[in-house]
Amino acid sequence: MTAQQPSDKALVPFVSVDHMMQLIHRIGLEDMLRGLGEYIEQDFRRWELFDKTPRIASHSAEGVIELMPTSDGEVYGFKYVNGHPKNTKEGLQTVTAFGLLADVSTGYPVLLSEMTMLTALRTAATSAMVAKHLAPKGADTMAMIGNGAQSEFQTLAMKAILGLKSVRLYDTDPAATRKCAANLAGHGIDVVACATPEEAIEGAQILTTCTADKQFATILTDNMVGSGVHINAIGGDCPGKTELAAGILQRSDIFVEFPPQTRIEGEIQQLAEDHPVTELWQVISGTAPGRTSNRQITLFDSVGFAIEDFSALRYVHDRLADTGLYLALDMLADPDDPRDLFGMLQRATPGAAA
Amino acid sequence: MTAQQPSDKALVPFVSVDHMMQLIHRIGLEDMLRGLGEYIEQDFRRWELFDKTPRIASHSAEGVIELMPTSDGEVYGFKYVNGHPKNTKEGLQTVTAFGLLADVSTGYPVLLSEMTMLTALRTAATSAMVAKHLAPKGADTMAMIGNGAQSEFQTLAMKAILGLKSVRLYDTDPAATRKCAANLAGHGIDVVACATPEEAIEGAQILTTCTADKQFATILTDNMVGSGVHINAIGGDCPGKTELAAGILQRSDIFVEFPPQTRIEGEIQQLAEDHPVTELWQVISGTAPGRTSNRQITLFDSVGFAIEDFSALRYVHDRLADTGLYLALDMLADPDDPRDLFGMLQRATPGAAA
What we know:
The structure is a homodimer.
Chain A: E1 11-15, H1 17-27, H2 29-45, E2 56-59, E3 64-71, E4 75-83, E5 97-103, E6 109-114, H3 116-134, E7 141-145, H4 151-162, E8 166-170, H5 174-184, E9 190-193, H6 197-200, E10 206-209, E11 216-220, E12 230-233, E13 242-244, H7 246-251, E14 252-256, H8 259-265, E15 278-279, H9 280-284, E16 297-301, H10 306-320, E17 327-330, H11 341-347
Helix pairs in contact in A: 1-2, 2-3, 2-4, 2-10, 3-4, 3-10
Organism (chains A, B): Lutimaribacter marinistellae
InterPro entries (chains A, B): NAD(P)-bd_dom_sf, ODC_Mu_crystall, ODC_N
Pfam family, one (chains A, B): OCD_Mu_crystall
């Protein structure tokens, strides 16, 4: 061991994309979605404990780069995430992400992880955990409008957490629907490819919209949505990007993660600033009503919040230790004497005695 | 090559602490300090281009964790940094840091780097670059009050950028002074260990204070500071942490990085909110005067700003390509079809055909 060999505290476990995929297969995708849903639900129950701040966004003509920090007082976490709709044309992902957990008492990072894959799982697990609280009893059929990268995860999370039996797929691009249907084959769920959105919502109690246009779009029109459904609106998640006709919002009871963020980024940016919404953590902790009748339209105006990423990182951190599915990164300078950073550098001179 | 093998775009170069130390030795510490000073100076000249925001801090009883983002419109960068004064007692660093650069047009990260070591260099390079603009002509002697982790870097940056010939060391702990003097031996600078701060400032035209107490302290009292000096105040860098008597501030012309941040974190938190200060970028770009007389006291109230970290990461990124001193991290999920994240996961099933 040479003088500059880092100590354990200076090494940060890093979960690569490949590690994450292996971890998902090791645990089992549906089990992991259920586990993530439980961690997210736990953190919604202790919502008031958390340091909450809207994400810190850096906008450009091409897209946005955001930092989403939060802390429960013992653990600190943040996610880096970009959103660049034009990336797809260049063969790149619209959204990529990574995240970090740190120990509040020392400030030392304890986990660095890819989060492109993990965000897909946590978004789906959040949707399904929320649907478990808000969808009509016995809901077993979902319309999945938008059959992109999130669609299979949404479907399997609804199966794992809510007992979904059937999914009805629609996308403006039939190739996306074919891809989604092929991916879901053999996963124990009935898959129906539909030619129109109207056909997709037939008989569905849960309507999930997840499209990617960065502009005001109307994926569901007012006359398409009848009573007694739960709408899970995923795609409207930044200023100028919405998916639902305003008329639907007016007829719905609206549930959100963190109002200051959702009012800027969610479907409700179409409504007055004081339009009533219910915070999900209150429903989940039992201090506000969720669904109160079978005729009601409930709407989860999902934009994604830092606490869900925190929960997901916490889950990965808890499941990682025994797996070996990480790389220990020499990320923190850790001199024997903390005041002697310079001495550490000098001892690392090539050829210097260890 | 298997189906899940990441493409080049999905791989992010990571510079570990060991890589950074090797890079410093490869370039040479003083050359690197000069190079960093030039990059920082360039970015101060184009200051108005940058997206500037005060750091986003998460405070706890034990310390603080901060994110410091910025962007010049083409490149985005942020630094994660903690400050935990009690860490030293547990054999940990008070401050650790890492940073990231990303391409604004795609949102994809292009560099992840340790920044504990790099922050020490950029802080020193910033001090010396600023002293080059503000210190009295011919300044060649510095008092270095506080002989901790930053002291050697400050001294050698002043030598490399300003031509410092002599440093006079003082610390309340004589062991720190002995460590600093030993580390500086053989670096071509005259080192004088002093028993009192009064002795240390004798004949010095530059007074650098860099102590670590998280409380209002008075490292320099009013009667210790005569006319015609440049004060480089490093240690006062968070709310409640200052080093200089208010009387010195009243007699000085004060120069700062980013006033909204310095008024909260710097020495000037002791002054009225509208006390006049000069922004350094204006001095460096020639739109505001710096030192105007030999009798003047100039004070750089340094707290560290995101743009300096951005410059330092930019320098490392530019110097890295040929060195091989990095590890390519599989950090971004990169499916062949961006809409088919699920297919990528399925193809990574252990035992699946590639």
